[in-house]
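Hey, I was hoping to borrow your eyes for a little while. For a while now I've been wondering how a particular protein folds. The fold is given in discrete form, as structure tokens running alongside the sequence. Could you read through the record and tell me how the tokens relate to the sequence? Take your time with it, there's no hurry, and the full record follows here:
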Amino acid sequence: MPELAELRFTADYINQVSEDIEYISCYKNPQHKCQDLDIPFYKYKLSAQSRGKEIVVEVKDVHSDKTIDIRWTMGMSGYFKLTVTGLEHKHAHLQFRTSDGRTLSFVDVRRFGKWKQGVSWNKDRSPDPTYEFEKFKANIKKNIHRAIFKKPIYETLMDQKFFNGIGNYLRAEILYRIPTLNPNTPGRDAIESHPEVLDFCRDIPLLAYKKGGGSIKDWENPFDSSEEVYENFMICYGRRGMGQIIDRNGRRFWYDPKWNA
């Protein structure tokens, strides 16, 4: 599933390819469960910003200051791709078209991605651990008495109310880099005894972003065909010899096997 770094790449891609483009129409695959978009503008520009595991795409009327927000989550495999109109991916479920024969598509092979018009950031998600780090830490400090912080830290880190953008590969890489922290330690105890957990919630996603994102099944870095070069920074997730366990949410957690003893 795309995590914080991948969402930031996606926003970067939308902004880069849309910089000099004016869109004129939008088409939704009728088989996709999400709502049709109602964009009343004759011509419009698109721009995007990411926050954790969400993206907000701003639709701006070319002839006025009117805007419409669309909130996006990528699901398990969603990404955007600009192509020549008519050459869209077969799983291009939402398509923004230009007058000069190009299409920006939301491609989602597994159809878990969602969008919603007229809304901005989800209030049930925490501040972004990278560019809102102090707010992110304050939110955890304020709520550290809650039940989620009594669960093992490897489960605590997956709760988007407090760790927006941290997902399966990031939690593995964060916890592996703290060799004295048993991942079975309750979240509150882990954070209080190893406050660097929160620092790594900022630093590892930034490292992932710098290196080109994680190697994630079914997710395509939209920059792969241009100047961005993928470099594997993972030292735990998916590595041979690491410990593995299926957590209570059915996700596979990778960890240092020394904690099996």
